[in-house]
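Moderator note: this is an archived Q&A kept for reference. The question asked for a predicted structure of one protein chain; the sequence and the answer are reproduced below.
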Amino acid sequence: MVSFDIHDHSNTGTEAIHVNLFSYLVKNDVENGEILPDLATDWELIDDETWEFTLREDATFHNGDSVTAEDVKFTLERVSSDDTLQEYENYRQIEEVEVIDDYTFQIHTNGPQPAMLNRISRLGSGILPKDYIEENDWDHFCASLSVQGPINLCSGRWMTG
């Protein structure tokens, strides 16, 4: 385990742990070559540079906070704007995440991104709890891991999220 920071590692062993702690917008079913829903229930390519997504309304982080479009914006804009993060090169194509409402958002890119769905289903795409991190700071988040994946480290129980 290199780091709990989803954006600052490129280690597949670490990612094998992260996929059990964080949920993604979509999942890549490599056996069937399909993109499957995870936190996002629907998505659509609006134009060459805009993807629109709708989130599940029942998704929560382990601390009980709802997963919202603001969390997605916080997560993707962090990695797409901070060139010190190891995952920056994979996300720098994202210019902005526009929040439409609590459960709808658009990803605006700096050109056509036909691999966007694959990109957000991989390393560095787990969704972070914006309010929790802003209230408690990054180090506290990494120590407490209030995330939304299938394993809740705080309770020691397997949870569906």
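Archived answer notes: DSSP finds six helices and eight strands in the chain.
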